[in-house]
Design a protein that fits this description.
The complex is a heterodimer of chains A (225) and B (422).
Chain A: E1 2-6, H1 10-22, E2 26-30, H2 33-42, E3 47-51, E4 53-54, E5 57-58, H3 59-68, E6 75-79, H4 84-92, E7 97-100, H5 105-119, E8 126-129, E9 132-135, E10 140-143, E11 146-147, H6 152-163, E12 168-170, H7 171-179, H8 181-184, H9 191-205, E13 210-215, E14 219-224
Parallel strand pairs in A: 1-2, 1-3, 3-6, 6-7
Antiparallel strand pairs in A: 4-5, 8-9, 9-10, 10-11, 12-14, 13-14
Helix pairs in contact in A: 6-7
Chain B: H1 3-55, E1 70-75, H2 77-81, E2 86-94, E3 99-112, E4 115-124, H3 128-174, H4 191-241, H5 247-277, E5 284-288, H6 289-306, E6 310-315, E7 320-324, H7 325-341, E8 348-353, E9 357-362, H8 391-402, E10 405-410, E11 414-419
Parallel strand pairs in B: 6-8
Antiparallel strand pairs in B: 1-4, 2-3, 3-4, 5-7, 8-9, 9-11, 10-11
Helix pairs in contact in B: 1-3, 4-5, 5-8, 6-7, 7-8
Classes of the chains: A alpha/beta (225), B alpha+beta (422).
């Protein structure tokens, strides 16, 4: 999988790149408008991460070029602008997703995977890990072929963990992803612990070969046993 | 006080003064003129009588007024010689009026055949009190007519002249800085109004520029803050994933990360607040509050059950509103989260939807909050520093934006009520 990261902030680009390389993606980086334009016109990418505010031009212009040349780029806008206008313009210009800075690495990971899944939909839409299978279309979770009964939120949590296998998921990231914006301002995320505890119990009793570990009180990590 | 009434007030006072002074001067001038002409008549009469005495000496015996308006008395020569003609104002009994009436009297002396006589001639004169009275009435009438006609003329003229002003005023009242509208126009050739028009328009364009700069500043500030926050968050998250990290250091990093996330939330909240206050939300559409409440409860129910708080909803009406979708959801969820957060274990939250209001009541501390301060920024009830202290400030800003009313009262339970139409 080849990803183009267009981001002018060197430190952020570096962190994103490192994180994406952990997922074994091939990452190229462009830090300003012209070099991004050059890369877009020369190569093809499976996914483009696009910052809107760039030295030398606007990311939205790049998006227009991509749309005109009908390059099959799956673009995720990463912007510090949390303005609805930008979001609508971006999505209107054919971007697949819009992520506001600052974001959690786990969230970016999940969005990229969602883009790939949409792109490479060849029948099955399943995440297979160990002896488990998560079917996104049917919203079913099976262990050794047997259905495990999960409620809506448990399914969403597990889904988030599975696309971020072996990666740290902070409680914040999980809360924002699963519980939505209403929880965003919530003052503490201790309630997540109970959800995780229930989920762990279900996974253990069904002998699933995956495990959710706590990470230093900050968050969790799903690993394959 | 309206401009019209103000000008009438000043005009009527000054006209009153002018008319008063003018009538006093007029009165004395007129009196003077009347006396003058009576005196001329008396002088003439005197000469006629003296001339008559030369032909008809019988009248020298006329010592009483009777039918003629004069008397003659013989006087001592030295008295006569020392006498000068003089006029007096005095009163005499008049038959027709059956009363004493004011008269003008000329007293003089003359010589006839070596004898000296004193002649008094009189003519009835104006009754000054009558004159004053007549004058007063006519002046009052004059004053009233003047004031009434000024009111009428003022009304018509001022209303016509000031019409462009009132039109402009109306335009200004509905003017909104954040809404694109053409430059204001005054349909008038009056110099002052044309100046007003250009002054108002330059003021508006200045304000617009400042406003857009402010907007840009907010966005730029957000960009400048969000990016470093994004860098720190990403780096710390990566650092925590490192296997080589000692668990003690990892805990510290975790704590830093949590602090950074609090900072991120704070920054987001402040931005949201600024955006609401800058009226940067104008995507209004029809929102059913009942759905918004259902969604907010679904999002928050795990949080509530973790805190041992039970939420019950009573919807007595379907409440629909024109407002921004995200703001509606922020309004409801902030109030709800507040009610859950500042609750007691085993407490309750009641949500009631009325025809034009929602009310969220919760059990909590057995003490009323300071209603005048709870909506202020950074007004924290708890010592828990994970609260941003902006939740209710955001609620209030949203209410202000849409003209809703937010009320807090305490009656054993803490109750927040939003009136959507009041």
């Amino acid at each position: 999988m080849k990803i183009l990261l267009i981001e002018d902030e060197a430190e952020l680009a570096d962190a994103i790149q490192k994180s994406l390389e952990k997922e074994l993606y091939l990452v190229e980086h462009a830090s300003e408008f012209d070099s991004a334009m050059e890369k877009i016109s020369l190569y093809e990418y499976d996914c483009i991460l696009l910052d809107v505010m760039l030295p030398g031009g606007s990311g939205l212009e790049l998006l227009e070029v991509l749309k005109k040349t009908k390059v099959e780029g799956n673009v995720i806008i990463i912007s510090a602008k949390d303005s609805l206008d930008d979001k609508l313009i971006g999505l209107g210009l054919g971007a697949d997703d819009y992520l506001t800075k600052p974001f959690h690495i786990a969230e970016l990971n999940a969005r990229i995977k969602a883009v790939f899944r949409r792109k490479n939909l060849n029948g099955s839409n399943q995440i297979l890990t160990g002896n488990t299978a998560l079917d996104l279309t049917e919203r079913e979770f099976k262990v050794d072929g047997e259905l495990l009964d999960l409620n809506r939120k448990e399914f969403d949590i597990l889904n988030y963990f599975l696309v971020n296998k072996n990666r740290l998921i902070t409680k914040n990231a999980l809360a924002e992803h699963v519980w939505g914006d209403a929880i965003d301002q919530a003052d503490n995320f201790d309630f997540i612990y109970y959800q995780i505890k229930n989920l762990r119990k279900k996974l253990q009793s069904s002998k699933a070969e995956i495990e959710i570990q706590s990470i230093y009180g900050v968050g969790y990590k799903l690993t394959e046993l | 006080m309206k401009l019209l009434n103000q000008s009438i007030k000043y005009l009527s006072v000054s006209i009153f003064l002018i008319v008063t002074v003018w009538s006093a001067i007029f009165y004395f001038n007129m009196l003077d003129e009347i006396h003058d002409s009576i005196d001329d008549g008396l002088e003439n009469y005197k000469q006629l009588i003296i001339k008559r005495t030369e032909d008809d000496s019988t009248i020298l015996q006329k010592t009483d007024y009777e039918e003629g308006n004069y008397t003659l008395h013989q006087i001592a020569p030295d008295e006569a010689l020392s006498m000068r003609d003089y006029f007096t104002d005095t009163l005499l009994y008049m038959q027709n009026e059956n009363d004493l009436e004011p008269v003008r009297m000329l007293t003089t002396a003359f010589r006839h055949d070596g004898d000296y006589y004193q002649l008094t001639v009189f003519n009835s004169t104006v009754e000054e009190d009558d004159l004053i009275e007549d004058l007063l009435y006519s002046i009052i009438w004059l004053y009233l007519i003047l004031v009434v006609s000024i009111v009428l003329i003022n009304n018509v003229v001022l209303q016509r002249l000031w019409k462009p002003f009132y039109t402009l005023l109306g335009d200004l009242k509905t003017f909104r800085l954040d809404k694109e509208s053409p430059a204001l126009e005054v349909k008038s050739q009056t110099k002052e109004f044309m100046e007003l028009e250009s002054a108002v328009n330059s003021l508006i364009s200045n304000a617009r520029e400042t406003y857009s700069n402010q907007k840009k500043f907010t966005e730029n500030a957000s960009h400048e803050l969000q990016t470093p926050l994004a860098v720190i968050t990403a780096k710390l998250e990566l650092l925590l994933e490192r296997e080589s990290l000692q668990s003690e250091s990892a805990e510290t990093v975790g704590q830093i990360l949590q602090t950074i996330q609090r900072l991120t939330r704070l920054n987001k909240s402040l931005l949201l607040l600024t955006k609401i206050e800058n009226r940067q939300f104008s995507e209004n559409k029809s929102i059913t509050i009942n759905h918004v409440i259902d969604q907010a409860i679904a999002d928050l129910e795990d949080f509530a059950s973790f805190r041992g708080v039970e939420i019950s909803v009573e919807k007595s009406a379907d409440l629909s509103l024109q407002m921004d979708e995200s703001l509606a959801s922020i309004l409801v969820s902030n109030l709800l989260r507040n009610a859950i957060f500042h609750n007691i274990p085993g407490g309750k939250v009641w949500v009631e939807v009325g025809k034009n209001s929602i009310q969220i009541r919760n059990t909590g501390k057995d003490k009323a909050l300071d209603a005048s301060r709870i909506f202020d920024r950074f007004q924290k009830e708890t010592t828990d520093n994970s609260s941003t202290g902006l939740g209710l400030a955001i609620v209030q800003a949203i209410c202000k934006l849409y003209g809703f009313e937010i009320l807090y009262r305490f009656d054993g339970q803490h109750c927040f009520k939003v009136n959507f139409q009041y």
